[in-house]
Design goal:
By secondary structure, the protein is an alpha/beta fold. The protein contains 22 helices and 12 strands. It binds iron/sulfur cluster (SF4). The site of iron/sulfur cluster (SF4) has 11 residues, from loops.
């Protein structure tokens, strides 16, 4: 068939489309009355409205009849010239000149294939990885039960001081608010002789009663494995990279200042478990002064992370003073605050704190780096805290830890990253859980599994919801799998992470 003669205005995709429609292999059939009626109605709509979609519907229906029944448009009484004029009309209507062939043969199948890749996730995520927003009714029921047991009024529930004052630190209190089997109580009693337990009443309200492997409970209540695993101690983090009082440094231009050992809650997977110790401490002014002097004396340092413990545990006055001192150091250009408190105790994010952060951010950019490990930790309350924070600092970034049973599946990690992005937080890192603390070996996930999970996100969720996958081993080392397979002449061979398809990418000369 000479398309150039018969279809002069149409592009190659549309010529292919006409080929497919008018030349199906095999014998043709007779259309049913219903099929005739449908095509007549579709044609009428396509001719009548100045819209592209009714035209697409005509061609999609024709492709469907071709695939299902080997019917050609002629079997339905349609002339090629009629369809050519519809095709031309479609291309003229489209603002970007997209042809009907390009749309039907290329774009729509790509979308269909992309949709298939996320179908399983969309079907399973609410059941397997609900957010704290989706579980909010149950969390509110838990809250009322916990308030009653702790004899805690609404004012105290809604204040940071109240949450810390009523924090659950003993197994007796924990077993009052949660119906725990006797053997679990004995086990927690045994572990908490060695490791601290603290969870705020708010964080405890996120635990769903009766779920033995609840991801919130796994992160906050120590388990017997911590004792079984302990033994082959690697020197605690910070023992080997602290060049000055309170300072950790791996890199030339970034330092961390560990400004307290205290947190709103103590996590079962804490990298700084040795540093946390048994007693909460805010340090004397001289310690901060020495740390600030180290920063002042090292003009290469441009980015300072204030962490702990948890930076938001610091009294407002101390936090404001440290930030102001840093803002006065000329070579310090950026600051970060490390805090999990917006998740564990979002009541801390009040007007006074926001003003301190906003004032410092107005001088030099200030970011908040948090740790959210499951979508369950995003509730209407924590989301609101992050919304307010994100309005006063230059970025709120998440550093999750990949944890067995908590977020080590595609569904759970996708849901985490999408949920935090919707809560004004940018997914930044996912850490492979550290080997340095054998106490939580049971929570570690093989590196390869994490690679599969993170790589599965490419092409399937928003690019800025995809975190970097990192191992901490004398600094942060990226763990992503390479998608550069090799070279073929002047081309690089690349692999699409979402479907494994190989493509050639012409390299620069
Ligand atoms: S909040 Fe951070 S520093 Fe504190 S216990 Fe949890 S992981 Fe460790």
């Amino acid at each position: 068939m000479n398309h150039e003669a018969s279809l002069p205005e149409l592009d190659a995709f549309t010529r292919d489309l006409f080929d497919e429609l008018f030349c199906p292999a095999g014998a043709s059939n007779t259309p049913t009355q219903a099929e005739r009626r449908t095509i007549n109605e579709l044609m009428q709509q396509a001719r009548g409205e100045g819209l592209a979609k009714p035209i697409v519907d005509v061609f999609r229906f024709l492709l469907h009849l071709r695939d299902e029944k080997r019917l050609t448009p002629r079997d339905l009484g349609l002339e090629k010239s009629e369809l050519v004029s519809l095709a031309e009309h479609h291309q003229a209507l489209d603002e970007h000149g997209v042809s009907i062939g390009g749309r039907c043969l290329k774009a729509l199948p790509i979308v269909r294939e992309a949709n298939a890749r996320v179908a399983d996730y969309l079907e399973r995520h609410r059941e397997e990885a609900p957010t704290g927003i989706e579980l909010w009714d149950k969390i509110c029921t838990n809250r009322e039960r916990i308030k009653q047991i702790l004899n805690m009024g609404e004012d105290r529930w809604n204040s940071f001081g109240g949450q810390l004052k009523y924090a659950i630190e003993s197994v007796d209190t924990l077993s009052q608010i949660m119906d725990l089997p006797q053997e679990t109580v004995i086990e927690i009693q045994r572990v908490t002789r060695h490791y601290r337990m603290r969870l705020t009443p708010y964080y405890a309200s996120l635990i769903m009663p009766g779920a033995p492997h609840d991801p919130i409970m796994l992160q906050s209540v120590p388990t017997a494995e911590m004792l079984t695993n302990a033994g082959s101690e690697v020197p605690p983090v910070a023992a080997d990279h602290s060049p000055a009082r309170l300072i950790d440094q791996f890199y030339p231009r970034v330092v961390a200042m560990k400004a307290t050992n205290m947190c709103g809650m103590y996590c079962t997977h804490c990298l700084r478990i040795a540093h946390i110790g048994r007693k909460d401490r805010i340090y004397p002014r001289e310690a901060y002064t020495e740390a600030l002097q180290y920063i002042r004396d090292n003009p290469r340092i441009r980015d300072v992370l204030i962490t702990g413990g948890d930076a938001f545990v610091l009294p407002n006055e101390t936090l404001a003073w440290i930030l102001a001192e840093l803002d006065h150091i000329e070579h310090v250009r950026l600051k970060r605050l490390g805090s999990r408190i917006p998740v564990t105790t979002p009541q801390r994010i009040n007007g006074e704190l926001l003003d301190i952060l906003g004032r410092s951010n107005d001088k030099k950019p200030l970011r908040v780096v948090t740790q959210i490990n499951t979508a369950r930790e995003i509730t209407p309350v924590s989301r609101e805290a992050f919304r307010k924070l994100s309005g006063r600092v230059s970025a709120v970034l998440n550093q999750a830890v990949l944890l067995k049973g908590i977020n080590d599946s595609t569904v759970k990690m996708w849901k985490l990253c999408e949920t935090i992005q919707e809560a004004y937080v940018r997914p930044y890192y996912v850490f492979n859980c550290s080997y340095r603390n054998p106490q939580f070996d049971h929570l570690r996930v093989p590196v390869e599994r994490g690679r599969d999970i993170i790589e599965s996100m490419y092409g399937n969720i928003s690019g800025d919801a995809i975190p970097r996958y990192i191992a901490t081993a004398g600094g942060k080392i990226p763990l992503h799998r390479s998608n550069v397979l090799g070279r073929c002449g002047s081309d690089i061979i690349l692999k699409k992470p979402w479907d494994g398809q190989e493509v050639k990418y012409p390299d620069a000369g």
